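User: Teach me something about this protein's shape.
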Amino acid sequence: MSELTRIPAPDGVAPAAAYAHVVLGTGRFVAVSGQLALDEDGKLVGAGDPAAQARQVFENLRRCLAAAGATFDDVVKLTFFVTDMAHMPAVRAARDAHIPPDRLPAASAVQVAALVRPEFLMEIEAYAVVGE
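Assistant: First, the predicted structure itself:
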């Protein structure tokens, strides 16, 4: 695991409530493509259910990180793409099940008009730094 430094409130910037403004570390960079609520067979999990979709997305992120020798402890940035900002509480709950509040990464949330298929409510990508 990389030694990461989280800066939730840089000088002159309002403190972050649910993320860190800055995360830095040294090591090997890992980029995980946006994950969707698909099971291992490519079937949608949680049609119309943002909480179920968020749980599946975070499970997919966990598996992708593991394939690179990383964990959620190594994540420095998450980007949330949601079709409705009303889904963010479900996204945060799924995130909080994997990442403790004192280790939150930098994050961005973007509401989009659509994802690759209309049944998807969210897509989440991750960047991580793994120690050498």
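Now, about its shape. The mean pLDDT is 96. Residues 37 and 43 are 8 Å apart (CA to CA). If you'd like, I can walk through any region in more detail.
User: That's plenty for now, thanks!
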